[in-house]
Amino acid sequence: MDTNGIFSDFAPTDKKTWRALAEKELKNLSYQELLTWEIVPKVEIEAYYDRTTTKFSPNPYYAAAPEQGKARHWQNLPYLEVGDPVAANKEALSQLNSGADGILFGISLPSVSVSFFESLLENILLPYCQISFVLENNLDKKDFLEAYATYLHQSQDAETLPQIVGFCKAAGEEANLDSSLSRNIFAKMPHFQCFMIEIEETQAWNVALAKALKKYTQLLQVLEKEPFSFTQVGFSLPQIDNYFLAIAIQMSLRKLAAFIAAQTSAKPLAEVAKAIRIHTYTRLWAQEADTHTNLIRNTTQAMSAILGGCDSLSVLPFAPPTPAGHALAQRMARNVSLILTEEAYFDKVNAPLAGSYFVETLTQKLSEDVWAQFQS
Fold it and tell me: What is the mean pLDDT of each run of 10 residues along the chain (376 residues)?
C-alpha cells in the first residue's frame, strides 16, 4: 500500500495491460519471438511478471541456515591442486591466514598415506576451518578416507573432531557405495560430508538436475540402512554466465532435494532444506588475453552463487596458472568472496531475491519441469 502517495500519479497496471501495450509497440513483430525465451529446453520465460502472475512459495528454501551471527554465510574455499603436499601446505596456510574459511584440495596422486596428511595439514587448525577434497578416479576413495580418519585420530584432540566439517567429491562414484562405505571410517568422522553429487555444466539443466536427484535418491536409500543421514550427502555444481538461471538452478535444487530428504527425516521440511549442502565453483578460464574480463565474469558468477544460496564457494583463478601470475590470480580469486562480504554486504540478508517476480517464476517453472523429469 502506498501510504505516502508516492505513486498516486501512476495508475495501477497488470500483465494483461502491459502485454497489450507491448504488442502495440511491436506492431507487426511477434511478441512470442521477441519477448519470450526458452531458458532451458521446454521451459519458457517472458519479459514481464507481476503479482497477478507469480505464485509465491511460503517455504524458506532459498538459502542455507545463517551462521556466526550473520543473516547469510557461505564458506570461502580456495581450490588448491596438490602435487607436493609440503608446497600445498605452505600455500594453504597463506590462504587461511589471508581470509579464506577453508581449503578445497584437489588430489590426483595414485595413493596417499597418513604421512601425506601430516605434511599437507601441518599447522592447520582443523576445528576452525573447513578442509575438503576432490579426488580423481585413479585414487581409491575408501583408502583415502581410512588414511584421513587415522590421521585425525592420531593428531587431533577427539573432543574437537565433531567440529570438523568437510566433503570428499570423487567423480563417478556417487552411486557406487559398496566399495566406499565403511562404518569404521564414518563413525570416526560423523560430521564429514561423505558424498558430493557432481552436476556437470550443460545446456539442459533441467535434465541434469533430474539425473542428480535420482542419484541423490539412490544414495539416501543406501544410507537408510547405515548409521548415516541425508546431511552427509551434498551437491557440487559449476556456475554459469546466465545470472538468473544460475540462481534458479540452486534454488530449485535445494527445494526438490529437501522434499526428497524430508521423506527419510523426522525434521520439519524447512529445517531439512537448510541442511542440504550445495557447493559451487566458478570456471577456470583459459583465455590469457582476456584475464581482466574473466575476473569480472568470476565476480558475477560468485554473486549468483551466493544469491542462489550456496553453502560454500570456490572462485577459481581468473587466468591459467603461470609462475609469474599464479600468486596474484590466487589472491584475487580468494578476495572475490571477501569483497562481496565486507564491501558489498552480501551477508546482510538471508534471501534477498525472495519475492522477485521474475526469479520466483523462473524457479517455479524450472522446479516443476525438473520434478516431472525426475518422476518419469
Answer: 64 84 89 89 89 68 61 90 93 95 91 94 89 81 83 73 63 47 63 78 90 89 69 87 94 92 80 87 69 86 94 85 69 93 89 86 92 93
Q: Are 62 and 362 in contact (CB under 8 A)?
A: no
Cα 305 to Cα 44, 133, 231, distances in angstroms: 22, 20, 20
Q: Are strands 312-314 and 75-76 parallel, antiparallel or unpaired?
A: parallel
pTM value is 0.88
Give Cα separations from 114 to 85, 120, 149, 195, 320 (angstroms): 12, 10, 9, 21, 31
Instruction: Supply φ then ψ for residue 312, to 5 degrees.
Output: -145, 155
70 close to 78: Cβ distance less than 8 angstroms: no
The dihedral through the CA atoms of 67, 73, 78, 79 has a sign that is positive
Q: For the domain 75-375, what is the CATH code? A: 3.20.20.240
